[in-house]
């Protein structure tokens, strides 16, 4: 599949940080930056932009805030035309936290929101565009969205100036036919815009669903090295680059990064295919209950967890 | 997806045995038998039927031979209408090794072959049918087949009495569009027959490709508990049962088997998503080079392995 419009975004640090509160050391972040740049990846998302008031620096590492000085410490000394992105969550950031692009090394801000907050997200994304950034809106947890709310949201997005809208399967619950339906729906509603896909791997479908979205016309693709990310993780970048036929991509720097940095990281944080994540995925539930179980001494009590989830027994 | 024609076959012992020469103890095999029976699985494939002359009993466990007494030791005491299957490989078995169904607890023989041996496989499958078994032909390594050879093979199979033909992605290399193309091709050529799918997970696509084949009309589906199988493993049974909507399936016995038997087995044999398997998958190569690398102290030298595979440097 070679379509020049396709752009790949690595969100190793941003999504992986959901597993360790963004407590990555500079060596790891720099290795990811250099590997993705050398591999020909189009964007690297280095973390979240958040208000200092919203999160504590004591528990959260620098990539929850993405200060300019922190980013520059990573990027300096590397020649690349790869662009840099940060994500922000509606409700966790103020307009004034996002200054002019001329004073930032960031190229793009991705605004994440639940479907009820699409209008707030459009407002913030317009602010980002006004400040000179590229901007996207990423509607999370789309598998829980009610059709009528989605229709309204897509209608509002269609009238906005936001050029890119992502379909985000936060719960890793969608099957290919649902990805097909949603991607086509987005494209139909957002005719002059670009549609992106961000998949989670609870059902071992993150890569397959990314391919399905590509076939249907999605041109912005999220992936992470070795699939690192919340819970079951994300679409593995090494698989995606192998699938895409664009000659600019080079798999080898990613293989090196897995060997030297992701395998050691896998000893510290657990992501991937674990049965509790599979269970929340198959039941269309937020992975938080699975993460809680994974951190407990009941992590292998699969039947018990499954029955509690099916019954809706509160787990927290 | 609920289609009453769909039948699920568990090949945990048969394909998993490729990783440990079928040296499973009776407790493990019995646990798999009871769990799949309780889960509503249609067939369990308990191993290979092989000539004693073809393999040594010293290195291969009982499930490489599937003697009646060995099987009965597993099945006795369990009430179920689940059927039992064994696989045989062309060239590793003689007609006389397969006696009459009336003297066997097996219900089905699946004949595996490379495409060049389809006529031998048809001959053996006809013998199995004559002896009173159900029979299938599983054409392995289909990603390496030349189109003209496949057309001829399908033509021969179409004229045969063999009722079920499997598409087998032995190298775990096919993407959804290829699965779609091949499944449709099989169905077109084998109009009154049933088509099956056996996928490997090198590219994290075994489950997705099984779904794709279902959508295209495949009605025989192979899977293994927790995805155990050669190299990267197979389509995980727990994912497949969760996807299929047939009310007779019950996920819970499979969750129990994972907790009590597959997690401990995972400490002894390694299957799953490892980069060497991903590399052979993405290059459409037999996993044997990856298995060799995985067993060596170069198992993490990914770039080196990749470059040798791309260059065609002999690895053995």
Order of helices and strands of chain A: EHHEHEEHEHEHEHEHHHHH
Beta strands of chain A, count: 8
CATH architecture of the largest domain in chain A: Alpha-Beta Barrel
Q: Major sheet of chain A, described briefly?
A: 8 strands, parallel, barrel
Summarize the model shown:
The structure is a homodimer of 316-residue chains. Chain A is α/β, with parallel strands linked by helices and 316 residues long.
Topology:
Two copies of one chain form a homodimer.
Chain A: E1 7-10, H1 12-16, H2 26-39, E2 43-48, H3 68-75, E3 83-89, E4 108-113, H4 118-130, E5 134-139, H5 147-159, E6 164-169, H6 176-189, E7 194-199, H7 206-216, E8 220-223, H8 237-243, H9 252-268, H10 275-282, H11 288-294, H12 302-311
Parallel strand pairs in A: 1-2, 1-8, 2-3, 3-4, 4-5, 5-6, 6-7, 7-8
Helix pairs in contact in A: 2-9, 6-7, 10-11, 10-12
